[in-house]
Amino acid sequence: MSRVRTVLGDIRPEDLGVCDAHDHLFLRSPRLPGQELDDPAAARAELAAFRAAGGAAVVQWTPYGMGRRAADLPGLSRTTGVRLVCATGLHQAAHYAPQTLDSLRGRLAEVFVSELTDGIGSTGALAGLIKVAGGFHALDPHARWTMTAAAEAHHATGAPVAVHLELGTGALDVLDLLCGELGVPGDRVILGHLNRFPDPVVHRQAAASGCWLAFDGPSRAQHATDWRMPEAVRALADAGFGDRLLLGGDTVVAGARSVDGGPGMPYLLRRAWPRLAAELGEELVGRIFREHPGRAFAADWR
């Protein structure tokens, strides 16, 4: 039976509730010096603000080696009442020291499987998805290595595979590799950041694989987000793919949190939801927030 694997245990998909399908409570990268999400008190306040806005669950896409603070997640979930799903996986090479990547050679899939089934280190928290990343309009050897390991871990556990698309590009290359060469079913793949490259033809071609289409990061400067997202989402719904859509906030730096003066997680519910409802209707948007994440992130765990 399919279950969503939260940091407090497995739950039924329908019990996930109103969900931010792609966000970050904690994140650290050499590409974002001085902008780390690394404050448990701020994370708790952000979750409380999200809860007050009507949110019930957050899927944190921060993968291995990027400061996800998995040990803090169960306590934050209990304290705030927000269900949390944690990622394993690996981001682009630029986010890691070379020695970190070298230490994972020959055992990457094993690490993913262990974090999905045994827990992350000594925290006791289980990961509930595998996060990997493509490059700009291409898949470099690092992306192929991580996606091959992700596919192996998926086949061993049933876990969903979530993909960072660099500036929203490369969706079809990712699907050719994951679903074509590596045999991951389309409905076990979540493509992130499609709003950043709003090509309706590519969106429809990707959707035809059966994958999940995530529009995340509203209110970001220099991305085609708020003003193009309703149009792109409506086009997919009109083409018959309204049942494959996900929405997320993707807060990646401290200044973007609502408690630090940014839009943060509540923006997704306070502003993006009503704007999309005006375009798509309340019924579909409600399903995108309440029903779709449970289906996308559930697995028949092995």
UniProtKB/TrEMBL annotation:
GO terms for molecular function: hydrolase activity; zinc ion binding. Binds 2 divalent metal cations per subunit. Zn(2+) 1 binds at H22, H24, K131, D250. The keyword Cell inner membrane does not apply. Its cofactor is a divalent metal cation. InterPro entries: Metal_Hydrolase, Phosphotriesterase. Coiled coil: none annotated. SUPFAM superfamilies: Metallo-dependent hydrolases. Keywords: Hydrolase, Metal-binding. Zn(2+) 2 binds at K131, H164, H193. The keyword Metal-binding applies. The modification N6-carboxylysine is found at K131. Signal peptide: none annotated. It holds the Pfam family PTE. Gene3D superfamilies: Metal-dependent hydrolases. Belongs to the metallo-dependent hydrolases superfamily. Phosphotriesterase family. This is Phosphotriesterase.
